[in-house]
Amino acid sequence: MMPLRLISKTALLLFTAIFTSPLWAVETAEVLRGKIYKTEECITLRNLTGYSQRKQNKVGLYGGWRHQRLKGTGFFRVEKTSGRWWAVDPEGYPLLSIGINSVSPQDGGPDTSANKETLNWAKGATGRLRKYGFNTAGSWSSADVIRKLDRPIAYCLRWNVSSHYRNDRKKRHVATGEYPVLYPFDSEFESFCEQLFQDARTTREDPWLLGHFSDNELPFREKGIVELYLSHPKDDPNHLAAQKFLKDRKVKKVGWKEDRDFLELVVDTYYRKVASALKKNDPNHLYLGTRFHGRALHSEQIFVAAGRHADVISVNYYHRWTPEKERIENWSALAGKPILITEWYAMAEDSDLPIEGVGAGFPVRTQADRAKFYQHFSLELLQIPSCIGWHWFKYRDSRNNAGIVDDENEPYDVLWESMGEINQQAYSLVHHFDHQRENKKE
Predict the structure, then answer these.
(1) Count of alpha carbons within 13 Å of 316, Cβ hemisphere only?
(2) Given this model, what pLDDT does residue 5 score?
(3) Which tens digits make up the pLDDT trace of 4-28?
(4) 256 and 362 part of one domain
(5) Can you give the residue range of the structural domain that contains 214?
(6) Are residue 331 and residue 407 in the same domain, yes or no?
């Protein structure tokens, strides 16, 4: 079998041929659909209409675009200006959060401690990420290590509020965990959150902290949600909340409207109490939400409710080769907040790792196909004014080829080069797409 490094160098040559050859009018990638590879068209920098490739954009310390300057507060925030949402970095430069999840040393994780070895690793890893235009270490990264570097990159924290509370609740309510639900109606929930978020005081003065995810992929299920809550014992706060909801509406039969509105109540109550507890302990940083995913994305009410309390709506966005622009814009409009895409990826057969049944990312044939997918997907996101960035899942291979480095820390060069091309020109591309959109209005 050909050594991985030789494969990587061969792929890099292939990348150069694919992305520079004038003979190719339309790029395609081979994607496994069932048991058969099929071709998907890809927009890449090479076939992007009307755009001339530029040099690397000038960015500030935190990765914001130095082309313009907004109000700097010393911390990350969000702002909508001239019809586009931005993250704004501590210096006041508009920023797209371009990140990688799970930036951690081998056998490490979010709880990895800072020591000489891990700091040395983090210096090299973040330096390479920055060189290729990344500016954020997303969820599950070794935040304690990254933030102690002399020159960090922006990082995120995740708190697992729901799972921590569920474990605590089992001591009081026997039905806890029997149903895929949350427990925001408990009288103890808010004080539990306030206690949990006391640890957020450690980083509340850190300008490198982008913000907080309270959870990941919570079970915000609309259909049948009222019955799920009523299924709890009659003295359980979940049962009592659903019972009161129906009594207040003066209805006896549960229909789709009741499910829709009760889901909104659940999400609103959860987000309100979590956001309040978080901001009491850390008023300086963004609340990035709970990383909506899957079937929950079909419910408009989760965006309406979450938008009242979160600063950013985070979405783990899978099973779409091309981002749905109108749908993402609608999510933002419902919430009144920007959208951050917090998971997406493709995995390739030529990694010799499994690609079937081992994750939500697209299974493709080669690393060159992953490279084209990154350009295609990110170029589409850059055209969406409500999108303030994306975080690829993830940094290192484990059970599948989601990583941008293998399990021995060797980079997939063809993928890195493709990512770097987009990342380093992201702001010029935004300018290009916004200019096109304005011209269409005229």
Answers:
(1) 22
(2) 46
(3) 444 455 555 555 544 443 333 589 9
(4) no
(5) 177-284
(6) yes
CA angle 414, 59, 434 (to 5 degrees): 85
Rounded (10°) CA dihedral 423, 56, 405, 291? -20
How many domains does one find in the chain? 2
Are 210 and 256 within one domain?
yes
pLDDT for 397: 96
Confidence of residue 413 (pLDDT cuts 50, 70, 90): very high
> What pairs with residue 441 in β-bridges?
none
CA 68 to CA 94: how far, in whole Å? Answer: 7
The whole-number pLDDT of residue 11 equals: 53
Same domain assignment for residues 88 and 43: yes
Note whether 184 and 237 are within 8 A (CB). Answer: no
| Residue 219 CB coordination number (10 Å) | 14
Distance in angstroms (rounded) separating the CA atoms of residues 356 and 86: 36
Residue 200 resides in a domain: yes
**Tens digit of each residue's pLDDT (9 = 90 or more) over 327-367:** 999 999 999 999 999 999 999 999 999 999 999 999 999 99
The answer to whether the beta carbons of residues 406 and 399 sit under 8 Å apart is no
Predicted local confidence at residue 9, as pLDDT = 54
- Identity of residue 352: D
297 inside domain = no
Query: What's the CA gap between 229 and 219, in Å, rounded?
Result: 13
> Which pLDDT tens digit goes with each residue over 252-270?
899 999 999 999 999 999 9
d(CA 133, CA 378): 13
